[in-house]
């Protein structure tokens, strides 16, 4: 028997924790009371809070808040996996980012998290054939957050983008589950091809700051890409690559690089 939405919402430990932390935040910093209430405490569900945040951040003189909020609410109502992924992204950020000590922070303050959630709405619009509105969302996400994710890109759950500035993800890119990446990562093409032209990132991959992964190549699950690398060829699972162009310098060093967040590539391995 399917559980009613009201019961599912009442059993939402992620949302319950966010609301508890929000109440404490108001006590600790009363001047933020209006902001915290409007963003969290005024809402009964995480779906509603996400729709509100989406609309607040992306609204402009060209598209008002009410329209954007309705768009997000329609997306969440039609595809429950969007909000399920949003919960997983919060937990992933809390577990992997040492600067995150509350579930509240990604929803309220972290542009990487917020950009991903907005892009999920854009991807839903893209799938519905509403490409112009999807492009509008992409444009506003890029303008507001400095993150440019094409609405055609497919992104898994449990994603953590630390700092998130200057992230670029192309139209035919695929990002698996439990992937971590840092700022200035590009998942791009290598030319003007019209077909499948962007990288496919496996589950559990860690992509270091400034790394460029180019072309229709596959990055095997649980691999590490060192900061500043330029990856032009397939990467086998559970390996570490580094350099320009990138080459294999050893094993990944742990079972789940994206969770361990160990970005140090051994000197001996890199010099071999």
From TrEMBL:
Taxonomic superkingdom: Bacteria
Documented EC number(s): 2.3.1.30
Catalytic activity from the UniProt record: L-serine + acetyl-CoA = O-acetyl-L-serine + CoA
GO annotation, cellular component aspect: cytoplasm
Biological processes, Gene Ontology terms: cysteine biosynthetic process from serine
GO molecular function, one term: serine O-acetyltransferase activity
Record keywords: Acyltransferase, Amino-acid biosynthesis, Repeat, Transferase
Short name of one Pfam family: SATase_N
Pathway as given in its UniProt record: Amino-acid biosynthesis; L-cysteine biosynthesis; L-cysteine from L-serine: step 1/2
PROSITE patterns the record matches: HEXAPEP_TRANSFERASES
Domain Serine acetyltransferase N-terminal: 14-118
Family stated for the protein in its record: Belongs to the transferase hexapeptide repeat family.
Protein name (database record): Serine acetyltransferase
Native species: Jannaschia donghaensis
Name of the encoding gene: cysE
